[in-house]
Amino acid sequence: MNSLELSLLQFQTRIVAFLRRLWPPGVPVRQDHMRWLFAPGLFTFGYALRTTITSLIALGIALWWELGSPQWAALTVWMVAQGTRGKSVAKARWHLFGMVVGTICAVLLVAAFPQAPLMFILMLAVGIGTFCFIGTLLPGPATMTNYRIHGMRASGFTYAIISLDGIADPQHIFMIAMSRATYIVLGIVLESTVSSLFQYRLGARAQDRLTHNFLTAIDGAGQTLASLLAGDSDVLKKARQVFANITTLSDQIEFAEVEMGAQRGHEGDHARAALARVAMLLSRGLDLAALIHIPGNVPGAAFNATSAKVQAFLRDMAGQLEMTDDIHPVLATLSALQAECRQSVADSLEDEMGSATSEPAPPAVAHILSQQRMLHYGLGEMLDELEQAIIQFDASRHPLRHDHFHYRIKTFRDWQQAFTNSLRASVTIFGSGLIWVTTAWSSGLTFMMFVSIVCSLFSTLEKPALATKAFLGGAIWASVMAAVLVLWVLPTPSTYEVMAMCLMVPMLMGGLAFAYPVLILGAVSYNLFLPILLGPGNQSRLDEVSFFNTAMPLILGLWYSMWVFRLVLPFDTNDMRWQMRTRILRGLRHVARSRTLPTTLYVVERNVDRFVRLLTDAENTPDAIIDAYLQGILSAMTIGLNIIRLRGILERHLLPPAAQEVVTEMMARMAQFSGRYGGHYGRTARATKFAIDRIQNMTQQEGNLGVRLEMNGALVCLYVISYELDNNQKFFDASSPYLDPVLT
Questions:
Q1: Residue 734: which residues within 8 A CB-CB, separation 6 or more?
Q2: Is pLDDT of 677 > 50?
Q3: Which DSSP state fits 494?
Q4: 3-class DSSP state of 358
């Protein structure tokens, strides 16, 4: 090694040591208070610096090309840029799609109504409302990280800025549309290009992230189920957090798929299926918890011994999967536990039914053996779900040749919410148009533009007023910073390079704020509106009058939108919970009588979606009410799954005719119990207990082993349903207002 290489190596070592002193590996970086500004994390600082440089390059190219409004290129960079490559590319694709749709619609709008302002305003409002309606129905949760919805947001955004610019000069609408599209494409291309330069081992890191996500989910589920078997009374609270984490991790899979590139197989599909199986595993755990807590049910020594082994396995399972790529040792241990559960069920049946050398057990002993057998049966079903989850996880780590497996992203459409979001956006925009027409305000079109931007971005959210309030705060800070730059700093520079140096620090601050969750929406607003307020140009500088004629419509537009969102179809958490409960009860009735039976995975994912929505929109609701509703959702999910299993048992026609008739009558009662006025809760609960007693007596008289096992499976479902109905009576009784503050 020569002296130059030695010097370079020493320099590199010193740099790494310096960075490790600033950002120690493995130590979480706190971003609270003002630490996001003076002590940011390494990746946060890298994102902010990269995006700032990219936006300045976009601004410089737009100025070099002598485009009319170069600030839109810098704005597009900030709108598309995200912390990871997958998110950036996914958002860029949907933003580009939305830009094309919005541009076409804007040209058609201006061409159709060049001299009809009221019709123009009406169709502008209807168009953005339509984009919001479609966006609400697209797959995934309505959050700012869902880039399918962002495609519709970008459509409304582009539709507004092009049509409002073009209506003032309709003869040049095509040129205006092309120039705006050029800015957006320039920003997207630059951000995608620059972000790709900072990616190392992208595909491998995406695969590692899929593995980490599953291990995080399976470890949380394993610890929760181990605590459940150990008798932890707070296990349901832990299960709620695991369900929420599964949803969050599942939403990130599509970004990892983007990072894997065109060479990927079906790793993402298997990863989604693995996480769905983890949710199913937890639902089986809830079934087992219900069986354990049945009054009078005391687990025997055999179940306690098997349970102890399962607990030890669940606590160490994630670590074993992480240490090796070979899942066969884990599956071998799991298979031994499954065999032990099956053997315990067989031994219990032999003790109950008797053999050539022993008499059948007396009724009292047979009842105890039956209940303990149900515990082993429930534990075995839980281990079966765990096996499927591990198999899917292995398929996500080791892609198979000629694999055609597909697990699509589930969509749970809410047509009422979509109509509400659409109407709210349309009314807000139409009102801003009436203000412009009636007042003849010279900056009215600018005011309408900002209102339309906010409606496009936030009307797909359930609480747009809250998001707009945060956006207003960021816009105020952007106005203050822009005022300093426009009125004091930027009049001096005469070259682009000096101007870029002046803008570097203000933009960098906005990028750093983006990493602090409390400031995300404010930071987005600051980053988007700062270039607009600066209004850079080749032949001119923004003067005081022009600055205030841009800043004032911005602040007033956001303030106006915030108050209209609060007044027009405002979000009501009490009503949201009541509607959710009504739909849950209606859904149970549907599962009990529908000709087309939903899958168990669909029921789990649908209720987990409700679960996460309830946690997201809790606001200032007392914890007791939220906990009660969360318990009700989990209980409803458990009942729904066992109804599906009971219907599967009925369709196999292995039960004796008398038992078949008893279960059919119970299902008929279940199909009526969730009526809106009074319901049939009491009759359903009594019918379930009656079915349990009848089938329990029939089981002891049945001599066929296969039929007896089928009857035991039906008993497990009935016991779980009865337990959940008894312990959540107020939730399932439709005549009860159930904890709503307005009604209690």
A1: 582, 585, 674, 675, 676, 677, 678, 679, 681
A2: no
A3: -
A4: strand
Q: How far apart, in whole angstroms, are the C-alpha atoms of residue 373 and residue 289?
A: 15
DSSP-derived letter for residue 28 is P
Predicted local distance difference test score (pLDDT) of residue 214: 87
Count the neighbouring beta carbons within 10 Å of the beta carbon of residue 707. Answer: 16
Q: What is the DSSP string of 91-114?
A: HHHHHHHHHHHHHHHHHHHHHH-T
Other beta carbons within 10 Å of 590: 15
CA distance 496 to 502: 10
What does the DSSP 8-state code read for residue 398?
Answer: S
Distance (Å, whole) CA 684 – CA 477: 59
Residue 207: per-residue pLDDT: 77
Token digits for 254? 């599509």
pTM, full prediction: 0.84
Q: Report d(CA 490, CA 540) in Å as an integer.
A: 11
Q: Which residue has the higher pLDDT, 262 or 628?
A: 628
Give the three-class secondary structure for 133: helix
pLDDT value of residue 740: 58
Reported as type and span, the H/E element at residue 229 is helix 202-229
DSSP assignment of 231-295 equals: T-TTHHHHHHHHHHHHHHHHHTHHHHHHHHGGG--SHHHHHHHHHHHHHHHHHHHHHHHHHHTST
Give 121's Cβ-side CA count (13 Å radius): 19
Cβ–Cβ < 8 Å for 221, 241:
no
User: 355 - beta bridge partners?
Assistant: 358
Rounded CA separation 442/164 (Å): 13
Q: Give me the phi and psi of 676, to 5 degrees please.
A: -70, -35
Q: What is the distance between the alpha carbons of residues 202 and 196, in angstroms, rounded to a whole number?
A: 9
Task: Quote the CA–CA distance of 277 and 274 in Å, as a whole number.
Answer: 5
Instruction: Read off the pLDDT band of 312 (50, 70, 90).
Output: very high
Neighbours of 680 (CB within 10 A): 19
Q: How far apart are CA 527 and CA 521, in angstroms?
A: 10
Structure confidence at residue 646 as a pLDDT band (50, 70, 90)? very high
**Is residue 366 predicted with pLDDT exceeding 80?**
no
Do 203 and 261 touch, CB atoms closer than 8 A? yes
* Cβ pair 96, 185 in contact under 8 A: yes
Weakest mean pLDDT among 122-126, 142-146, 289-293, 320-324 = 142-146
Give the chain's end-to-end CA distance (angstroms, integer): 80
Supply the pLDDT for residue 143: 52
Backbone angles phi, psi at 355, to 5 degrees: -145, -170
Query: How many residues does this entry show for the chain?
Result: 744
Q: What is the DSSP letter of 169?
A: S
Helix (H, G, I), strand (E, B) or coil at 355: strand
The percentage of residues in the chain with a pLDDT greater than 90, rounded to a whole number, is 30
Of 540 and 452, more confident = 452
Place of tokens 């620059």: 194
DSSP state of 489: I
Closest CA to 460 of 145, 158, 131: 131
Structure confidence at residue 743 (pLDDT): 39
Render 146-158 in DSSP notation, one character per residue.
Answer: -HHHHHHHHHHHH
Selection from 203-207, 294-298, 708-712, 716-720 with the highest mean pLDDT: 716-720
Question: 34 versus 388: which is more confidently predicted?
Answer: 388
Higher pLDDT, 206 or 581: 581
Three-state secondary-structure class, residue 572: coil
- Are 486 and 536 in contact by the 8 Å Cβ rule? The answer is no
Radius of gyration, alpha carbons of the chain: 31
In a 10 Å sphere around its CB, with 0-12 CB exposed, 13-18 middle and 19+ buried, how is residue 357 labelled? exposed
